[in-house]
Amino acid sequence: MIAEMPKAIPAQERNIHSAVVEGFGDQWSRFDQKVLSDAEVQKIFGEYFDIFPWRSLPPNAVGFDAGCGSGRWARLVAPRVSRLHCFDASQEVVAVAREMLAGLPNCEVVHAAIDELPIADGSMDFGYSLGVLHHIPDTPAALRDCVGKLKSGAPFLLYLYHRFDNRPRWYRTLWRMSELLRYPISRSPKPIRYLCSQILAATVYWPLSRVAKLAEQVGISPDSFPLSFYRNRSYYVLRTDALDRFGTRLEQRFTRAEIEEMMHAAGLDNLVFSDHAPFWCAVGWRR
Questions:
Q1: What domains are defined for the chain?
Q2: Rounded CA separation 248/179 (Å)
Q3: Consecutive 10-residue runs of the chain (287 residues): their mean pLDDT?
């Protein structure tokens, strides 16, 4: 059961970015991920969860999804556990996730920000937050809030955008150049954000990812190609992620060393990092 809602935090003290919440409400309403093939969903899910210790979970495990978005991950996690609590700070997103997860009676979707999760401290057998905490003003505090909900020895899976610390300098320079576009687009009115992101999906994401795919087909390693991560992704995923990347007001990035330090400070030990994209994805256990 969801615990009683904690005492409200004064608005000026909230660890939340209202423009980001509004943006994701628009994003997941437009791209609820229902049209993706089962094969693509399973592949993407595996890239995040292949380091998750499913076998170490107790029988009848109860856990939480912090920032559930459309419910795309919860849809695959819920059948593996006894109960899954899903939280999102956007009312629009909660509506989308409830529709996505309607057929899963052990899955509950609640409107709640990460600094006000209505579950008891030290009560969860596992948790995860994928692609969310880097969009929150104080990422370390948000991670501490999540870890605080775990039982001792419970695992937490985290995905935070990397600062391209595993990429060459020229690659990082390209990213900085892309920021010159992201900054004004992300601050534009909603229709402009959407239009610009879709133009970028068609003129940048699609051609560059397909060049990387062609290189791989002729025996050239695609790893150093910009946007090679998307070489086997559908156009729908490219459109979704272009809006995510260029339409989100607040985006923070971290090196692996910074994420390790952050996770340890939050109370997670025995960290395991994924050795493949997306970077950085890591799991730790609450001490």
A1: 13-163+253-286 (3.40.50.150), 182-247 (no CATH)
A2: 12
A3: 49 82 96 96 97 97 98 97 98 97 97 96 98 97 98 98 94 93 96 98 98 97 94 98 97 97 98 96 97
Q: What is the pLDDT, as a whole number, of residue 4?
A: 45
In three state form, how does the secondary structure of the chain look? CCCCCCCCCCHHHCCCCHHHHHHHHHHHHHCCCCCCCHHHHHHHHHHHHCCCCHHHCCCCCEEEEECCCCCCCHHHHHHHCCEEEEEECCHHHHHHHHHHCCCCCCEEEEECCHHHCCCCCCCECEEEEECCHHHCCCHHHHHHHHHCCECCCCEEEEECCECCCCCCHHHHHHHHHHHHHHHHHHCCCHHHHHHHHHHHHHHHHHHHHHHHHHHHHCCCCCCCCCCHHHCCCCHHHHHHHHHHHHHCCCCCCECHHHHHHHHHHHCEEEEEECCCCCCCEEEEEEC
Alpha carbon separation from 33 to 41, 193, 223, 240 (Å, rounded): 9, 19, 26, 9
The predicted model scores a pTM of 0.93
pLDDT at 14: 87
User: In whole angstroms, how far apart are CA 168 and each of 160, 181, 256, 260, 275?
Assistant: 19, 21, 15, 21, 17
Residue linked to tokens 């970028």: 200
